[in-house]
Amino acid sequence: MPELARRIGRAKPSAIMVVAEKAKRLKSEGRDIISFSIGVPNFLPGDHVYAAAREALAKDTGQYGSNRGSDALLDAFIAHIAQIGLNGYERANVATGIGAKHVIFNLCEALLDEGDTICFAVPYWTSYVDIAEIVNAKIELLPCPASQDYKMTPAQLDAALAKKPKVFLFNNPSNPTGMVYSKDEITALADVIAKYPDTWVITDDIYNRMVFDGLGYHNFVHARPELRDRVIFLDSLSKTYGMPGWRVGFLAGPESVAKAIATMNSNHITNIPEVVTAAAIAALSGPQTIPEQKNAEFAAKRDQVLAMLATLPGVVCPRPQGAFYVFPDISVAFGKTHGPTGQKIANDVDFCNALLDAKGVACVPGSAFGEPRALRISYTCPTPQLAPGLQRFKEFFEELK
Ligand code: PLP
């Protein structure tokens, strides 16, 4: 039998999905499972989105569409990002993809030759590593542990950019930590970036509308407008509008980059489907009640999770101010045992497995995000499940010996 390409050997299925699949299997076997594992919003888009999709179906032309995205969709996106202070982008500066993940994939192919370096923080969103490995880039990691609130410092970034990586990939608000950089922190990092003109900067900011506590969302381009010629801003409908399965992602950046993405699209996907385009325009341009209401709900759920974690001795958890994740350092539990058989908890994977087996609560081990001292709690589950899930988590922790 002929061999698969080497790049497939470098690609791994997402570790997040592995936990979610196990939780799903246990549920199908009749177990009472509460899932804190998967990062999908637990709500659907507004009626106006479905109405727009139905209307598009009724008027369907069945034709191929624009590689970059239809003009109406690009215009809706440009108007949308102007609301967060990213002004002055034109159609030539923006492009779409089948979700932000696809845009990141396209960008890595468009910006990185084999062996070029991409740098990003640890903890990272799992797919960054897999995508970088598929395109055969070198990965330079910036460790950002709980002791520094999971955020990089300007000095750390300076040291990393001094090595002249081709791409710096930044994520704010963060998956998996939920941490959000303040205006001052963004300005300090933007000052560092300004010193290194040979590095592209991708800001994966798909949770930009999910920021709590009045902190606000800030971008390097707000801090230093001249960085616009190499900062590429990413956005997505998946989380903000409850539309992960519709698969729509965007970028705004330099013309050359947007054009390259349109070229990649023309070879990979041709276009975003017409019905999806209509739904996306409706989500971007219609009433914005969903993100507003959901932020209040998410901030309250975040507080519930933090209150439970605060009762567990030795667990360290920086306070997230965005997205819908909490990322506690649970390494104090390592070396302990659980249950009548004395099941050993040597690491984050053992912790998550034992928690799922004993209490039916699914969390993602931190090692999926490069930080094996922690685990990720995604709190988008239906509200009535949150308190019992947290109670089970607490019981599990307190039963450790
Ligand atoms: N970037 C981050 C930080 C994410 O958390 C995710 C999804 O979980 C994505 C990108 C991908 O989003 P999309 O659904 O638009 O592909």
From TrEMBL:
Tagged with keyword Hydrolase: no
UniProt EC number: 2.6.1.-
SUPFAM superfamilies: PLP-dependent transferases
Protein name: Aminotransferase
GO BP terms in the entry: amino acid metabolic process
Swiss-Prot/TrEMBL keywords: Aminotransferase, Pyridoxal phosphate, Transferase
Domain of life according to the entry: Bacteria
Class of enzymatic activity (EC top level): transferase
Family statement drawn from the similarity comment of this UniProt entry: Belongs to the class-I pyridoxal-phosphate-dependent aminotransferase family.
Molecular function, one GO term: pyridoxal phosphate binding
Cofactor(s) this protein requires: pyridoxal 5'-phosphate
Sequence ranges assigned to domain Aminotransferase class I/classII large in this UniProt record: 32-392
PANTHER family assigned: ASPARTATE AMINOTRANSFERASE (PTHR46383)
